[in-house]
Amino acid sequence: MAKKKIINKKSMTFLEKYLNNAAPTGYEWNGQKIWMDYLKPYVDEFITDSYGTAVGVINPKAKYKVVIEGHADEISWYVNYITENGLLYVIRNGGSDHQIAPSKWVNIHTKKGIVKGVFGWPAIHTRNRAKEEPPKMDNIFIDVGCSNKKEVEALGVHVGCVITYPDEFHVLNRDKFVCRAIDNRAGGFMIAEVARLLHENKVKLPFGLYVTNSVQEEIGLRGAEMITQTIQPDVAIVTDVCHDTTTPMINKKTQGETKMGDGPVISYAPAVQNKLRERIIETAEKKNIPFQRMASSRSTGTDTDAFAYSNGGVPSALISLPLRYMHTTVETVHKNDVENVIRLIYETLLTIKDGETFSYFD
Description:
The chain is α+β, with helices and mostly antiparallel strands. It folds into two domains: about 10-75 and about 180-350, 3-Layer(aba) Sandwich (Aminopeptidase); about 75-165, Beta Barrel (Elongation Factor Tu (Ef-tu), domain 3). Helices cover about 25% and strands about 25% of the residues. The chain contains nine helices and 17 strands. The chain has an eight-stranded mixed sheet with strand order 1-2-12-3-13-16-14-15, with helices on both faces. The two termini are about 30 Å apart.
């Protein structure tokens, strides 16, 4: 594929709609419907499971199966306790950051529709400046404008309601995409774009391609654990986000150095199959696709681990998108990196042969 602009106007419309939609862990289905509707012209059929993972399949009759995967969920909160004076206390659904909560608007999802609320916080004038109390899980709370518990319940709010942030998609300085849930709805976007390019370029793959958008990654890779048993793939290429470590207060000695704008990040970890990783690196070098390297120690913390250790062992690799401000409402990525991840997955797929084992002993 020639090095040219990949993301077009239709792609951007899809990306914005997909990111703006709320799809918290355990409630991903509306986002999955948006994703499937976009992907439908480019695949032969879909597989779905009872928890919401969606898979677009190209060449479903092929015996040899290759997965490209991202995850669909986003961090959120649950209502955990309603006080007698109508305030809500919360627990995490995924890795929600309590320190960014104060003064944020929220959407509380109820059977009656969205109920608006705000994470309240004491005014600076009322706080003890000599001993500032930081935001913690036991002191952040949501105010929905009610004076008592009965008023809250009349709105349809109850313990167990899921809560998301309403922050929507923006483009910063022409080529930076900013939104909540880029981790990792960007992954779903990128694998969908790979399928689109295969279709538009009339590529006939010698294997079945399973374009997989998994659920519940944020609470332990659960969707990937389930769907890999259904697909039983021979190879898996996973895409997720990783940290841009060049912003303040990040220690490169412990976090490594990866930078937004410098290209996809290729991981080293026990779960990453070495020969498959080297194929990806060789592809990047041959096609002049910029890339970075990252060491992930014992685990990648991504769906790569779930695929790698399933079904007796599946050769798996991870291509990450460098991202600033993970698990905040202003997650930020570079458009060039997004396009280069798409390009790298696409070009790597073109190198994979039917029946290839990536065995160390061949």
